[in-house]
Amino acid sequence: MRPTQAAFPATRLRRTRQTSAIRALVAENTLSPADLIWPVFVRDGEGVEEPVPSMPGVLRRSIDRVVEAAREAADLGIPAICLFPYTSAENRTADCAEAWNPENLSNRATRAIKAAVPGIAVMTDVALDPYSDTGHDGFVVDGEIVNDATVEALVKQALSQAEAGVDIIGPSDMMDGRVGAIRTALEAHGHHNVMIMSYAAKYASAFYGPFRDAVGASSALKGDKKTYQMNPANSDEALRLIERDLREGADMVMVKPGMPYLDICRRARETFGAPTFAYQVSGEYAMIMAAVQNGWIDHERAMLESLMCFKRAGCDGVLSYFAPDAARLLARG
Ligand code: PBG
What we know:
The chain is built from 11 helices and 12 strands. It is an alpha/beta fold. The protein has one domain (30-331): TIM Barrel. The chain is globular. Bound molecules: ligand PBG.
């Protein structure tokens, strides 16, 4: 007897999940090495690769090893590498002068990469925290993180990075007006092709802990960053920050951290349509790797799923410590 109309589902959504070929055919999003930016920690010395204990698999590398890493990334199809210097205590001062020293670690690493691997884009961080004795992203006067004096220093830092050959400048400091000030200075000094990826919506997050270990800032940091980084309770404010930074001349914007803020990624992309990136930060990486090391989740599947969610949320790409492993895995198909 023929089943009645109601006896079977009119729409069988499972039909398009039957085989991997059909699943690939109807996939709404894809992840490729071209979506990834790889954050790398730079330290002094030569031939040095030093593990970061709170980030299993992540290394601090001397400049020669960073160049090798950049070459490997380029071969894997990763378009950009992002440099973070590990600064020793003697280079952390109240005036933060090391931040705009043309010979600082970040600038030397940039020149070495641009000379050896011209095809990869170099991104750098603009903020005073690697160079300040307080561990804050700005100058501290009478307990206050002062905005405008900090912006003047950030402009000097950004210009020294542009002189070294950086392609993308990433202000991560959350001071007001810094994108406009940096853009104006870049134009005035002939660096009109240097891009700005603003850390526009950067939250005061518990997930930065392992990063602060990696760059040697944990012991330096006094207090918290809540007077300049965003309150995790807010979402409209993120849109106001992104709108402001785009108006001031940012070419690309970032939401940070990543996985706890996918709603912000989605709203940002839909509201502005500008190139939008997420930073899957150190604590997100550490959290996944801790579960992997305990045998609680599968490394490869968790890694790719955690990256795909950014594409689904509307991001153009993602900064991730998984970048080289993920790119290798994607290359295997
Ligand atoms: C510094 C900076 C931080 C990160 C990137 N740039 C830390 C902070 O704001 O304290 C965090 C990255 C990560 O956790 O992976 N301005």
